[in-house]
Amino acid sequence: MADLDFEMRLDRLFAEPPHLADSEAFAHRVETRLNRGWSLRSLAIGAAGVLGGVIGAGQLISSNLLGQAQAASVNQTNAISDGFSNIVKAGSNLSALPIGGEAVWLVAALGILALAFGITRAMDEI
């Protein structure tokens, strides 16, 4: 059988690292190297960021992305405007229906209200 006292002393000896005479000087040298490296690293990261930003801006300008976005915006605005004008035209034709136009708008409003209640119920369940 193993001696329990000996095992515990052996564990304590190996758990504690030996104290070296120059440990404080070594720690100071390591900290100095790490601090010196951070300034160089931060400078390199900053330069890479600026270079990447310049390249990205050049790519945006050369691809005419801003012009295409403006054209898409104009097209989308025209499509929305046409859609609203069609809705207004359809709304003006409601008077020709055998029921009053107010009834159609009431049904639409109730449908929207039911949809809103359904959404709030679903959010409460989540």
Task: Give the SSE map.
Layout: H1 4-15, H2 23-62, H3 65-92, H4 101-125
Could you tell me the radius of gyration in angstroms? 37 Å
Give the number of helices: 4
Q: Label the structural class.
A: mainly alpha
Helix content: over 70%
Q: Mean pLDDT, rounded to whole units? A: 81
**How many strand units?**
0
What sort of overall outline do the alpha carbons produce when their principal axes are compared? elongated
- Compressed to H and E, one letter per element, the order equals HHHH
Q: Quote the beta fraction.
A: under 5%
Terminus-to-terminus distance? 62 Å
Low-confidence stretches: none
Which sheet architecture does the biggest sheet show? none
Assembly context of the chains: single chain
Transmembrane segments: 43-61, 103-123
Organism: Caulobacter ginsengisoli
Protein name: PhnA-like protein
Keywords: Membrane, Transmembrane, Transmembrane helix
Polypeptide structure, described:
With about 130 residues, the protein is an all-alpha fold. The chain has helices spanning about 5-15, 25-60, 65-90, 100-125. Keywords: Membrane, Transmembrane, Transmembrane helix. This is PhnA-like protein.
Labels describing this entry:
single chain, 126 residues, mainly alpha, 4 helices, elongated
Question: What would you say about this model in short?
Answer:
The protein has 126 residues and is mostly helical.
